[in-house]
Design a protein that fits this description.
Elements: E1 5-10, H1 16-25, E2 30-33, H2 47-56, E3 60-63, H3 71-78, H4 82-92, H5 96-111, E4 113-118, H6 128-139, E5 142-145
Parallel strand pairs: 1-4, 1-5, 2-3, 2-4
């Protein structure tokens, strides 16, 4: 039996070309953007430009805004208060849009090689690790940090 595969990737220390190369090497066919705000000061990582660049590489782009970290959680993460960010994020996961987007992520992972995308380079300090654990628990997928 083949289990679906879920990757996670952060673009903090990478260029767009490097991120796309890692996604292609992992045979990812859909990126699940789990940022609350799909905008970035980093060239190429704002929603429309990122979606277009991924499309050129035959990778689908899906923005799951409900799985983004609320502002207080982002502030805590930027300040290095990972435990606080995790607590804020865990509470956020009961919000209706988060529940819907988590279910959608699970549906997508079952039929694709997907990657959760966020800014933070270190997945252990990012909310995407929480999302990956929840998706793994619900789908049986194998998770790899790129």
């Amino acid at each position: 039996m083949t289990f679906p595969c879920l990757a996670t990737i952060g673009y903090e220390r990478a260029t767009l070309d490097e991120v796309i190369a890692r996604l292609l090497a992992a045979k990812v066919d859909v990126v699940l953007d789990v940022r609350a705000i799909a905008a970035s000061r980093r060239a190429g990582f704002s929603k429309s430009v990122l979606a277009a660049s991924l499309s050129e590489a035959d990778i689908e782009y899906v923005h799951l805004r409900g799985l983004g970290t609320p502002k207080p959680g982002r502030d805590a993460a930027r300040a290095g208060r990972t435990a606080e960010m995790r607590a804020i994020y865990q509470a956020h996961l009961s919000e209706p849009q988060a529940v819907l987007d988590l279910a959608r992520a699970c549906e997508i992972v079952i039929g694709h090689r997907a990657a959760l995308l966020c800014f933070e380079a270190d997945a252990t300090r990012c909310h995407r690790a929480i999302v990956a654990d929840l998706v793994r628990a619900r789908t049986g997928c194998v998770v790899a940090d790129l």
